[in-house]
Amino acid sequence: MEKIKMTTPLVEMDGDEMTRILWQWIKDILILPYVDLKTEYYDLGLRKREETKDQITIDSAEATKKYGVAVKCATITPNAARVEEYGLSEMWKSPNGTIRAALDGTVFRTPILVKGITPYIPTWTKPITIARHAYGDVYKNCEMQVQGGGKAELCFTDKNGRETRKLIHEFTDDGIIQGIHNRDASISGFAHACFKYALDRRQDLWFASKDTISKIYDHRFKDIFYEIFEAEYKEKFAAAGIEFFYTLIDDAVARVIRSNGGYIWACKNYDGDVMSDMVSTAYGSLAMMTSVLVSPTGIYEYEAAHGTVQRHYYKHLKGEETSTNSVATIFAWSGALRKRGELDGISALCDYADKLEQATIATIEDGIMTGDLYLLSKLENKKKVNSREFLEEIGKRLSAALG
Ligand code: NAP
Ligand code: MG
User: What are the tens digits of pLDDT across the range 8-20?
Assistant: First the structure.
């Protein structure tokens, strides 16, 4: 078989520890035999970030803006222990945070469903994608503890020095106060990313907040979503046969539990934080959760939702066998290659990405899986394999599918 040719390079962001090992194996076993892979390579491994004073992360984000599609391996976010372990000159920031800030993006997380692993909510037969707004609200708050009574006010000073004040509370005793904010531009970016992603996936979009209680703050989110929808997406949604609907967050929670899945649930920052943990746990495993960062202008960065699986890496270094699940990382590659194929009009690349995903799911449904899934699967013929054997089993099925 002739290898599939690419025209535009994919931005490849390598990472750390066990996922870095899997990264190379995925390429060797599942990609390079079939695709004439064209990437612009950035090593975001912690050693390289230290060596370049983290410039490599910034460069990789810039390259993503230039080419439009990236695939990222999990990376270490340094803490005090990592500073010592790697002899770092600085506690470098989370690469994900840097990339997210550069692309002003929204993160979409979607579980991968397989036969044999039943969600804790058995009616969830299709995936629920959580889109979390990643700016502001309580994550950029300002808070105060106050004592002995007094008056708390919100005060805004405009450019001309004119003040607008509103009473928060007249305290008669001790208490607490919090100030939060968001920006119209950030909310608009979030809305655009959600509408574009819904069209891309041809799935309904739900958005919820608490505008009945928060009549200005949450209501602004609702208004911005509707204004943008009416002006730019209403007809496209109708043509795609999908729906956008807004409801109250408590009503959304009740509907989500009763639903069969198969839609995108856009959440404000705090709701997204809480609900994404609930949704991913209910579907079974973090190793089966894909994640894609989408910018308001339609730039895509694909990754796995889990970390570098440090504990497995130390076993690997000691020469012990590991059984690490590579599914989310494989799907990051297939997602990125498919998107590249769509943008460049290379249908063979899209077809390859579909077959790679099908071969991965078929392997697990045939009963061959890594240790984390082995504990969850209800299949009777299940067999636990090591990290590399799992990829080789997928490789056999992929090779057969591609003829
Ligand atoms: P983690 O790498 O997600 O792993 C936590 C545990 O979850 C593992 O020890 C393992 O459990 C299980 N697990 C996660 N992914 C798995 C997989 N693919 N296959 C099998 N089991 C899996 O989180 P962490 O240990 O808290 O973090 C390690 C490093 O990752 C940290 O330095 C952190 O900064 C970084 N991190 C990066 C990202 C990212 O780049 N997107 C996200 C999160 C964390 P058992 O040990 O019980 O088998
Ligand atoms: Mg959380």
Answer: 999 999 999 999 9
